[in-house]
Design brief:
425 residues; mainly alpha; two-stranded parallel sheet; 70% helix
Length: 425
């Protein structure tokens, strides 16, 4: 039982400390792949030793000390790196043995800087989006390859290959382990935010499988977002991203019914919304608004989410404000998907006819041809206009396009309900 408890503790510590350990090692060895291998060696040592010796008071420092020793051993076997051995060995000699609880600050006093470097390396533009997501969850989220694969419903060997290829690409391209300069920071930070929000969205509205949501992915994304906000506190859009995720996640408990079936926003029991997450989200939004500059796409979406969070009932929602925010969002981020969302807001503020006119202009958009939410939204607007036969056809088409089984069942139920109202069944 003691061994089982110790192993669980090791797993929990790994989730918390792995990113910092890998980041510190990557700065020393200038190789993300090698840094992760060294950190994994330290994890194995913890699994072997902690059941007998007990968990140290500073487990992160213990893991870092062991990993650095492994690094020294590797460098000693490479004659071409003798100079680095001397430098690292001299540094190591000043430290206490791992069981003596070394001071983490003495081992690495630049935790924040190293973590930020690791964030930018994991989300580097030389990697594909899929590789960036997998590597970020692996290195910064502390997830195993199996956990990443399970979260995204992808075979484990596929995820393993993505991670391996990503590390090789970083090494081949000689991506420096550093924070981008001022000229590159905006673009690179946008890539980081994109990865974090992709992870969140996959948890919030799963693209495939049986589950409507995967809360663990949302939690991982929010943890990454909070960490990023502390690392770059002067970046307005990062706080906007955190606010958006916190407020959206506050609805999680209300988004599914007793049998796991999806519950749409208008039908949700708002008393089940997490008020702590709402307060945290609104606080993050306030931090963003206090910073200089204009709101970016994430902050505008957070403002939209805040309108919902502040409304005690669906009827109290300030739809005109939401429609105005979407209009600004379309200017900043021209996208058929954003325009579709604007159509929903316009329909709520000014009537379904106004929304349907916008949607009908999107029906020939190539990028939305297989996007299930286009016929879903159109079906909803048609139903509100009492055009139930047409609405049924749209809901059926939407059900055929989605890969999420829970959402498919919901859409088929709506198609059947509309057909019944139209008198066609």
């Amino acid at each position: 039982m003691a061994t089982l408890e110790a192993n669980r503790t090791v797993e929990a510590v790994w989730r918390i400390e792995s990113a910092r350990v890998i980041a510190g090692l990557a700065r020393m060895v200038h190789d993300v792949g090698l840094a992760e291998e060294l950190a994994q060696d330290a994890l194995v040592a913890a699994l072997e030793q902690w059941p007998e010796s007990g968990v140290p008071d500073n487990p992160g420092a213990w893991l870092m000390a062991i990993a650095k020793r492994r690094a020294i051993d590797q460098f000693r076997r490479r004659e071409t790196l003798e100079r680095k051995v001397v430098e690292m060995g001299r540094d190591l000699e000043t430290q206490e043995p791992p069981n003596a609880e070394p001071d983490f600050d003495a081992i690495d006093s630049n935790i924040g800087d190293n973590l930020l470097r690791l964030v930018f390396v994991s989300c580097h533009p030389v990697l594909s989006t899929e590789a960036r997501v997998a590597l970020t969850l692996r290195l910064l989220g502390g997830l195993t390859t199996e956990e990443v694969a399970r979260a995204f419903l992808v075979p484990e060997p596929t995820i393993a290959q993505r991670i391996v290829r990503a590390k090789k690409t970083l090494a081949k391209k000689k991506v420096p382990f550093e924070v981008p300069n001022a000229a590159e920071l905006g673009e690179r930070l946008a890539s980081v935010c994109e990865v974090v929000y992709l992870v969140f969205n996959e948890g919030y509205s799963a693209t495939g499988g049986e589950d409507w949501m995967r809360p663990a992915l949302c939690e991982d994304a929010m943890r990454l977002g909070r960490m990023l906000a502390e690392l770059v506190p002067a970046e307005r859009e990062v706080h906007g991203l955190v606010a958006l995720m916190e407020i959206q996640a506050s609805r999680a408990r209300a988004r599914t019914g007793p049998d796991g079936q999806p519950v749409l926003l208008f039908d949700q029991d708002r008393s089940r919304w997490d008020q702590l997450l709402i307060r945290r989200g609104l606080a993050a939004l306030a931090r963003a608004e206090r910073l200089p500059g204009e709101p970016g796409p994430y902050e505008l979406q957070a403002e939209i989410a805040a309108c919902h969070a502040r409304a005690r009932t669906p009827e109290e929602t300030d739809w005109a404000r939401i429609a105005a925010r979407y209009a600004r969002l379309v200017q900043l981020l021209p996208s058929p998907v954003v325009e579709l969302n604007r159509a929903v807001a316009v329909s709520m503020a000014f009537g379904p006819d106004a929304g349907l006119r916008i949607v009908d202009e999107l029906t020939d958009e190539p990028s939305l041809r297989k996007y299930h939410l286009l016929p879903s939204v159109r079906g909803d607007l048609l139903a509100r206009l009492d055009r139930h036969a047409e609405a049924s056809e749209e809901f059926t088409r939407a059900a055929e396009l989605t890969r999420n089984e829970a959402e498919q069942r919901l859409l088929l139920d709506r198609a059947k309900e509309s057909a019944t109202r139209a008198g066609t069944v």
